[in-house]
Design brief:
single chain, alpha+beta, five-stranded mixed β-sheet
Length: 235
């Protein structure tokens, strides 16, 4: 579900960053809304490509066509634009760096598919997708940690609980290092979605390993070790 989180593609005219409408009285186009460009590198390059267009109030058909071509072709365009044309129709364009543009990543097909069949029909934007993910994780995370400690305590000899739970605590801390390192490495080589997926591989791998853990045999060995240690202490 974390890999499938994807911002919705702007659909209505009011949801676009640039909103441009034809004004019959002036016979030209008026920009009703535009984003504030920052001084960041990409925004600066994007602003230089726009030229003086963003400072104007009225636009001709040629200027609107040039503006639309700039958004569709610029590799720095991270905004979307919607046009209410002279003939009453609406046209929209999404820049290549817009958050809803899912292109280039090896796993981008997955969020695109889930967005098409789930997020878009239900109109659930990325913020609410993250909330759903957080609720689902919260439902199982506490229980899984409690079950892990419970299982580990059953197969640990009571007389050597200090040793065993020290090792258990060490592995918990080690996972706090291994997970982020794996995430950073995969992000550097591929992208963040692949990095999230790599964490899933760790979880699946751990689940598979647990199939070979004989809990009953572990409990028996732990009891035998306790009995042996007590007998040794009584000698």
């Amino acid at each position: 579900m974390g890999v499938s989180v994807a911002p919705l593609i702007p659909s209505s005219h009011s949801s676009h960053d640039y909103q441009i409408e034809f004004n019959a009285r002036s016979g030209s186009y008026i920009m009703q809304k535009s984003p504030e460009l920052s001084t960041s590198k990409t925004d600066g390059l994007w602003k230089s490509e726009l030229g003086d267009l963003g400072d104007e109030e009225y636009f001709s058909n040629a200027e609107i066509e040039k503006f639309a071509n700039t958004i569709s072709e610029s590799k720095y365009a991270k905004f979307s634009a919607s046009f209410k044309m002279e003939d009453g129709t609406e046209q929209s364009i999404v820049g290549k760096l817009h958050p809803s543009s899912l292109k280039g990543g090896p796993l981008d097909w997955w969020p695109s598919l889930i967005r098409k069949i789930l997020w878009a029909p239900l109109n659930i934007d990325a913020g609410y997708q993250w909330l759903l993910l957080g609720v689902n994780v919260g439902l199982v995370m506490g229980g899984s940690q409690a079950l892990a400690r419970s299982l580990f305590s059953q197969i640990s000899p009571e007389t050597r609980s200090g040793e065993f739970f020290s090792f258990f605590g060490f592995m918990n801390r080690a996972s706090s290092v291994i997970g982020p390192i794996l995430y950073i490495l995969v992000t550097g080589v591929l992208d963040t979605r692949s990095a999230v997926f790599s964490i899933l591989l760790l979880i699946v791998g751990g689940t598979i390993v647990l199939k070979w853990v004989d809990v009953d045999q572990g409990i028996l060995i732990a009891k035998n070790e306790d009995a042996r240690k007590k007998a040794q202490d009584n000698i």
